[in-house]
Amino acid sequence: MESNLAVRIGKRVLQLRKAQGLTQDQLADSSGVPQGTISRLERGVSGDVQISTVDKLAMALGVSIEVLLTASSETEEMELVAAAL
């Protein structure tokens, strides 16, 4: 997946993880995704992200893949559009 999408996914993972009171280690344990991968994804330095990783994170966070692929707010969506220009 392209890197702008990876940044969006990382932001959503961070928001959802914190909203659920989970640490990166706890999310790693429940998803099977290494903690380092989660950290890089949340910080926006992961580059590309595999769909299997997105699927594992979505399942562990109790959301659909679509939730991770969509902007969490109108402001974030506008930032993503601006970044693409």
What do you see in this structure?
It is globular, with a radius of gyration of 12 Å. The longest helix has 17 residues, at 3-19. It is 72% helix and 0% strand. 28% of the residues are buried. The chain starts with a helix and ends with a helix. It has a single domain (3-84), classed as 434 Repressor (Amino-terminal Domain) (Orthogonal Bundle). The protein is an all-alpha fold and 85 residues long.
First CA to last CA: what distance? 18 Å
Number of separate structural domains: 1
The CATH architecture: Orthogonal Bundle
Coarse shape = globular
The average pLDDT value, as a whole number, equals 83
Number of helices: 6
Largest sheet report: none
**Helical percent range?**
over 70%
Q: What is Rg?
A: 12 Å
Question: Can you tell me the CATH superfamily?
Answer: lambda repressor-like DNA-binding domains
Low-confidence stretches: 78-85
What is the succession of H and E elements?
A: HHHHHH
Question: What fold name stands as the CATH topology?
Answer: 434 Repressor (Amino-terminal Domain)
- Structural class by secondary-structure content: mainly alpha
Strand tally: 0
What is the top-level CATH class? Mainly Alpha
Beta-sheet strand percentage? under 5%
Task: Outline the fold blueprint.
Elements: H1 3-19, H2 24-31, H3 35-43, H4 51-61, H5 65-69, H6 74-84
Helix pairs in contact: 1-3, 1-4, 2-4
Domain HTH cro/C1-type: 13-68
Keywords: DNA-binding
Pfam families: HTH_3
